[in-house]
């Protein structure tokens, strides 16, 4: 279904803010009801055309176990210097597709994945954005950016 | 119980990073299992001596309804410029104590609470830190900072 101009505009605004901050804090719910977050590098070259965001992850990491129990996550993008804040509520999914992994791989990722893209433990996380809000000044009321 | 030197040191490191970023993204779980976050200004003058963090809030806001159902929240403090990231898992509690509200009030808060500290809708959120982790460089493995 074609998106309206407003939807396209809000998707562009959202993606611009996300690319500007780039590192998300990804929050997951564990089996005890505790919320955990950790920094995760959004892949800018994966684009946002179909409303999805992409990350590299280790397939056996605690966050993957958590999201296999509760796949609804939050991504927050905060830049206190610029007073930009984004909240994304999304659905996360582990993707083990070697072609896609090679296509999205960049050398800078070896900081977290020293064995490179062919390590069988390296996988992708696909986050389908459900709702998102953003704030772009200290006094701004929330703006419904996307998905409402 | 007295804390060990290591606990005190890690609490000091944690509090230093939190004060440096100051604006948390506070993530709550709603009744449909969706995770929402929004920027919230930590009160630096409230201190961190007893392992609690303080925020002003509107008593009738969606986040308050969400945390009354599920009081376990996450606070993330991110500064992509300095590569500082903190994740706090904590328990939130609404506090309606007029003396404490007046004591913690600062004029800058009228950006969000234009009617001032005597508005009956103004309340405090107390977050008791349960566990926290921090990362202070892109390549840093997570450090168990507190509460483990
Ligand atoms: C700036 C920064 C970016 C990071 N990006 C990623 C990433 O893209 N993928 C990843 O798996 N871990 C990344 N990490 C490490 C994670 O924050 C985390 O320590 C690791 O994924 C383990 O998380 P878990 O134990 O909660 O599963 C990054 C760390 C920092 C400091």
From TrEMBL, chains A, B:
Start and end residues of each General stress protein FMN-binding split barrel domain: 9-148
Pfam families tied to this protein: Pyrid_ox_like
PANTHER family from the UniProt entry: PROTEIN BLI-3
Protein name: General stress protein 26
């Amino acid at each position: 279904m074609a998106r309206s101009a407003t939807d396209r505009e809000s998707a562009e605004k959202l993606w611009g803010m996300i690319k500007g901050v780039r590192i998300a804090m990804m929050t997951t719910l564990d089996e005890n009801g505790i919320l955990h977050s950790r920094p995760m590098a959004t892949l800018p070259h994966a684009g946002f055309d179909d409303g999805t965001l992409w990350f590299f992850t280790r397939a056996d990491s605690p966050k993957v176990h958590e999201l296999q129990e509760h796949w609804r996550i939050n991504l927050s993008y905060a830049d206190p210097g610029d007073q930009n804040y984004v909240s994304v509520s999304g659905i996360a999914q582990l993707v083990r597709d070697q072609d896609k992994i090679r296509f999205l791989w960049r050398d800078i990722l070896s900081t977290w994945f020293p064995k490179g893209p062919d390590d069988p433990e390296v996988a992708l996380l696909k986050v389908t954005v459900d709702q998102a809000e953003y704030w772009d000044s200290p006094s701004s009321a929330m703006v419904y950016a996307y998905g409402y």
